[in-house]
Write a structure and sequence with these properties.
Belongs to the cytochrome P450 family. Its cofactor is heme. It is a single chain. By secondary structure, the protein is of the alpha+beta class. It has a single domain, classed as Cytochrome P450 (Cytochrome p450), CATH 1.10.630.10. It has a two-stranded antiparallel ribbon. It has a two-stranded antiparallel ribbon with strand order 2-3. Strands 5-8 form a two-stranded antiparallel ribbon.
């Protein structure tokens, strides 16, 4: 029961901020946006709502969200305490109750793991057999939800919310950045947020 308030509170700004960043970059990368639109309507025609099973056929949709979370992890830095037993990492011994601090923002922009780390490149998350793929060099290079038994409890809910809303938007609208918005930077509050309002225009696509 103690996790319920945490799930409810943590699931608001986190998903909305991630979707804001995703739409911001899609508006600046029209070729990616068009490819995503074609993928979505190829699986779920306009006028129909996507279902959970449909997302298994939308690899670019998932890649866009993964790339967004790589660039803008919801929580830029967090920590965990190892409580079960001492562990050895890289020849160093860490006793029980050691606190580890991970800066997701820095790790997920490591150029040795993510080539061209500052650029929005969703195709890096697709299989290397597909064109224009930079590739991801380490499976734990980006872990915005954490990993293991203490990973984010709301991960699946958050992923489904974002997939559903982004798919619906890509079905029906072309997203354009408002000219007055300009360049947007991230700033760390409790979560990582834009430094100003992100103005977007949603242009209805023909049916």
């Amino acid at each position: 029961m103690g996790s319920l308030p945490e799930l409810l509170m943590a699931g608001v700004d986190t998903t909305s901020n991630t979707l804001t960043w995703a739409l911001y970059h899609l508006s600046k990368s029209p070729h990616v946006q068009e490819a995503l639109h074609e993928e979505v309507v190829g699986v779920v025609p306009a006028g129909q709502a996507p279902r959970h099973k449909d997302f298994a056929h939308m690899p670019l949709l998932k890649a866009v969200l993964k790339e967004t979370l790589r660039l803008y992890p919801v929580v830029p830095i967090n920590s965990r305490v190892i409580v079960e037993k001492e562990i050895e990492v890289g020849g160093f011994l860490f006793p029980r109750n050691t606190q580890f601090v991970l800066c997701h923002y820095v790790v997920s922009r490591d150029p040795s793991i993510f080539p061209e780390p500052e650029s929005f490149q969703p195709h890096r998350w697709l299989k290397k057999s597909q064109p224009d793929t930079l590739g991801v060099q380490h499976p734990f290079g980006s872990v915005p939800f954490g990993y293991g038994v203490r990973a984010c409890l709301g991960r699946r809910i958050a992923e489904l919310e974002m997939q559903l809303l982004l798919a619906r938007l890509m079905q029906q609208y072309k997203v354009v950045l408002a000219p007055e918005t300009g360049e947007v930077r991230s700033v760390a509050r409790i979560v990582l947020v834009p430094n100003k309002n992100v103005g977007l225009r949603f242009l209805q696509r023909p049916c």
